[in-house]
Design goal:
15 helices; two-stranded parallel ribbon; 15 strands; about 350 residues; seven-stranded parallel beta sheet; alpha/beta
């Protein structure tokens, strides 16, 4: 629709310059053209008019998966990040999520906003960034009357004795988990008060094609693709759920299109049952037609490595997720929408192709 309006604007300018007497012509085609021209010149809340989807924190793996689905559904979207990287015909704008005015301007005219932002894996950065980013996004969505979908992880749950579901209480055992719990509770409190329509969509740890930030991709897929020995963190006998990255885009679009899905929390489709590290490594090795050779890195070894590497040091507090069972249940979503997660064997085979 945006393209049609822009074309109509161009045609209207030609008619205005050459045939000014026809501006009030009874010709219906011309009247439509000039009506579109009015929309162009006065904006007319154009993004909202065409159900604009705005992605805050665009450029990551979840955003890319969502963009693929939006494009496939012919839905208009705007991508926003601190450092825009325009490609093809995508509309990118710059946004600083810690700046209220920047977020307000970015969200203006949107119908639906996805908060998919990521930031440096540093607790001090998280403490400064996340409360402000969430507050600014909520206020911007309230002003624009836009719905909000916050894409979250499971840090807020902490160490769970059993299966993680949408009703699992927040009980963080890490500093990063405490931050995620606070901003998640803040968002859902705003929905309970009726201040905006929003939801939280959570995923387990990631794996998938062309994703170099997942520990499964980095420690298992990458080395096996080169005929090297894989690695696993702490305990290869504990079951560990992983969400297939392409599934996240499909699920987010499905949630966004259902008004009844808002003002609650959802777990995105994740294959069940959760498999042990040993079994997952065996699957990955089979996909690469290699031997399932690997070593398990104990916590003490990771802690020592953290002395020399900041990112590893920041990850040590999260190793409880690898030591104990990490079982993520998405049956609520699957039952509501009839969509099943990609099976691990299929997802790993597909991901292995990206290493060719």
């Amino acid at each position: 629709m945006r393209l049609l309006i822009e074309i109509a604007h161009g045609v209207a300018q030609i008619y205005r310059n050459s045939y000014s007497e026809q501006i009030h012509s009874p010709n219906r085609v011309l009247n439509v053209i000039f009506a579109c021209d009015i929309l162009f010149n006065y904006q007319f809340e154009l993004p909202a008019l065409i159900n604009m989807h705005t992605i805050l924190g665009a450029g990551g793996v979840t955003s890319n998966a969502l963009v693929k689905e939006l494009r496939g559904s012919n839905l208009p979207f705007t991508l926003a990040s601190r450092n825009p990287k325009p490609v093809h015909d995508e509309r990118w704008i710059s946004v600083d999520l810690t700046d209220a005015g920047s977020v307000m301007e970015c969200v203006k005219g949107s119908s639906l906003v996805y908060l998919l932002a990521g930031t440096k894996y540093d607790i001090k950065v998280w403490e400064a960034f996340w409360p402000r980013a969430m507050k600014n996004t909520i206020e911007a969505c309230k002003t624009a009357n836009a719905k909000l979908i916050f894409f979250d992880n499971v840090y807020a749950y902490g160490l769970v004795n059993g299966v993680m579901t949408e009703s699992t209480p927040y009980n963080p055992v890490s500093k990063k988990g405490e931050i995620r719990a606070k901003i998640a509770e803040y968002l859902m409190d705003e929905t309970r008060r009726g201040h905006l329509s929003a939801m939280i969509a959570r995923a387990a740890d990631f794996y998938g094609p062309r994703y170099d930030k997942s520990f499964f991709n980095m420690m298992v897929m990458e080395p096996l693709s080169k005929g090297k020995r894989a690695q696993w963190l702490v305990n290869d006998k504990a079951p560990h759920s992983f969400t297939y990255t392409p599934d996240t885009g499909k699920a987010l679009l499905k949630l966004s299109s259902d008004p009844a899905a808002f003002n609650q929390q959802w777990h995105l489709p994740t294959s069940s049952p959760a498999l042990t590290g040993k079994k997952l490594i065996e699957m990955a090795a089979a996909a690469f037609n290699s031997k399932p050779q690997y070593m398990v890195l104990p916590k003490i070894m990771v802690s020592v490595a953290g002395i020399f590497d900041h990112n590893i040091r920041e990850a040590v507090e999260m190793l409880y997720q690898n030591k104990y069972d990490y079982i993520f249940d998405s049956s609520k979503f699957e039952n509501a929408f009839g969509i099943k997660a990609t099976a691990y064997e299929d997802g790993i085979k597909e991901a292995s192709k990206s290493y060719d």
